[in-house]
Amino acid sequence: MKPSQKKNILRNLCIVAGCGLIVGALVVLIFSLSSRSLYVSRCEEYVAAIRVTIPPVQSAVPEPGRNNTMPALAVDGIDFVALLEFPAFESILPVCNAWGSPEKYPCRFTGNVHESTLIIGVKEHLLPFVGELYVGDLITLTDMTGNRFTYRITDIRITEDADRETLTNTDSALSLFVQKAFSSEYTVIRLDPSI
Predict the structure, then answer these.
(1) Spatial distance between the Cα atoms of 138 and 63, rounded to a whole number of angstroms
(2) Cα–Cα distance, 80 to 74 (Å, whole number)
(3) Would you say 193 and 149 are in contact if contact means Cβ atoms under 8 Å apart?
(4) What is the DSSP letter of 184?
């Protein structure tokens, strides 16, 4: 086989491989976007179901020394403990009771709102605006008894790990950690009550 024929075959193989990679990337992108849309839609359904079930919402402040559990409400077999709201983005997400619950929704990693130790984990597909959050922004958390707690962001950091020690080593009343899509990085958001 002549060198020019080998070059043509190699070039054609590279073109086919490149096209295959592009098609594969498009399939992953389309699947990711459709999954995100499905999860967002399910979140909206859960939020609506929770809102009609919990007592009327009222402003509250954490009460240390209170019962160390957060009341849960079961919807479709999933226990939820709170609604997490980002008013600037008109986004409300249900928060699952326990870590290891369906990770497609925000989950309580550890802690309690009344003890000011609550840590919540969220996947980035539910918070596509995480890069647009800033220190000073307000976030609210409504528990299943209708108590709404208002927090202000005090710190935002990007980290390579979100292990228990990193997340619990804080004096912040509420912490959120957001796993970035297609990355091992996390955005850790610290919040304190806004009075």
Answers:
(1) 20
(2) 6
(3) yes
(4) S
